[in-house]
Amino acid sequence: MEEIPEGWGIAGDYIVNENRSNVAVAIIGRGTVEVPPHLCHMMGTFKTENLGIEKIIANIISRPWIRHLVVCGREEFGHYPGDAMLSLHSQGVDGEMRIIGTRAPIPFLSNTPTEHIERFRSQVTIHDLVEPKEAEEIIEYDPCYCFNATEKERLLTLLEELYGREDPPFPGKAIYSESESLIQSGEGLGEGMHLLSDRIVSGMLSMADQQLSTTSPFITLSYDPAIIINPVDGTVVEVSSVDLANRLRDYLTGGY
User: Fold this and answer.
1) Which of 49, 98, 196, 237 has the highest CB neighbour number within 10 Å of its CB?
2) Are residues 209 and 155 in the same domain?
């Protein structure tokens, strides 16, 4: 079976078990649960409807033996990453790389080619264990939580069932992402997007009449790495994607 090239890797909060199980588990937010390592090849968390999903796609299409993706945990208010992932698998993306049919606010996959998305959708069967799906209000930003007994039992029952299947690897070569925003990028870029969001909102609050009328896009210094200047306050920021940064700005300022 094909080996992943030395030195290649997608940064993120996940573990890779030595087995070549046909299952990956994606937990929404900072949920935790103990799972016997033989029941899945990969298990990790995702928090956003854009970069977090892109990292999952990149990890899965680089491993053709993964044929099932279990999405579980409790939906997160604001980002709605679970809804975005399920909508992506069922409906794909439109011409602007926006996930079709999701209620997530900024579901743009700016670092992932369409062919990679379609490969992901073809390669895996998705299993929806997201509960609860409704997150009506934010109580705490990015809360930690442990699966309760019922949630854990549902997950383990499904994993045991999938473990008994003998699904062949996807009939195609492994695909390795070339996006610098995904490869070995660590948590820094994700945190950077949150800081950028804070700067935009803070500027709007401090000088609302001027900031809300500012529609100019960010000034791009470079695309690889993606470095921009905020034209409002002159700050220089490294981001995961120039396109995603501008879409974030549009969303926060009502630009679309």
Assistant:
1) 49
2) no
Question: Angle at the Cα of 134 (from 131 to 137), degrees rounded to 5?
Answer: 125
Contact 50, 244 (CB under 8 A): yes
CA gap 159, 175 in Å, rounded? 25
Which among 245, 216, 252, 256 has a CA at the least distance from the CA of 110? 245
Position 5 in a domain: no
Q: Assess whether 39 and 153 both reside in one domain.
A: yes
**4: Cβ contacts below 8 Å, ≥ 6 apart:** 62, 63, 174, 176
Phi (first) and psi of residue 18, to 5 degrees: -70, -25
Interatomic CA distance for residues 141 and 16, integer angstroms: 27
Amino acid in the structure at residue 126: I
Residues 131, 226, single domain; the answer is: no
Residues of the chain with pLDDT under 50: 208, 210-213
Q: How many domains does the chain have?
A: 2
The sheet with strand 219-223 has its strands ordered as 219-223, 226-229, 236-239
Do residue 92 and residue 200 come from a single domain?
Answer: no
* pLDDT tens, position by position, 17-62: 988 899 999 999 999 999 999 999 999 999 989 999 999 999 999 9
- Residue 222 CB neighbour total at 10 angstroms: 10
Cβ–Cβ < 8 Å for 94, 100: yes
Tell me if 101 sits within 8 A of 45, measured CB to CB. Answer: no
Range of the domain at 246: 188-253
Distance CA 156, CA 43 (A): 13
Check residue 212 and give its pLDDT.
47
